[in-house]
Amino acid sequence: MDFLTELLPFILALVAAGAVAGILAGMFGIGGGAILVPIFFHVFGLLGIPEDVRMQLALGTSLAIIVPTSVRSFMAHRQRGAVDMALLRSWTIAVPLGTLVAAAVAAKASSAELRVVFAIIALVLAFRMIFNRASWRLGDDLPGNPIRFLVGAGIGVLSGLMGIGGGVLNNTFMTLYGRTIHQGVATSSGVGVLISLPGLAGYILGGWGTPGLPPFSTGYVNWIAVLLLIPITLYLAPVGAKIAHAMSKRQLEAGFGIFLTLISIQFFLTIVL
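^ that's the sequence the OP posted. Answer follows.
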């Protein structure tokens, strides 16, 4: 009974976090990692989880939640023929390799260092979202190797360190080289699979046996959060999508950019104060 009493606040906090993440993910058309990580960090903090494992736990749990949504999205986009399979095949080593490197780095890094990394990357993405122009172009087609391999590995590293599926990063890469945003979004679902599966394994192994983790955790993945949030985010994402349809693409980009900026500032403040 005492165990259930202790667990109830944890469950209620995660349900609330999943509701917010699902709506915002639906609004901004992303997998939700950039939203889930800061929410997890603060919820885990409210529940008394030690700071030295809190950020790693947020990152690993976020990637675990992205696995089924990425697979489901990829299968749907592939059936429509919208995925650039040639690009994905060329990244089958680069992206997972980068993600595993990120998991290894995260296991050794401090919580403060990971928050700094998250905040800096989020600020760069926010700049892109707020000031993005359709005229920005680096070329008319995607570059070949070794540049392509390095970009894939870089997307894996940055996504693994942020606990995201890489959609924003891949969309930026593909649109800068003349691909449509629709193909970018479709291909990003496959990139999410290449990131989330090795990322899940990496964060489990990286946190194996670490003290201070909450109940029902395997390494840096908390399965209560995973099982609770997957159905909630999937159910409420259409609500966010409905809100999004009432806004222009530009308003959505600016809104997400502002959101990322606020999260970055807040993370910086948790380190300074």
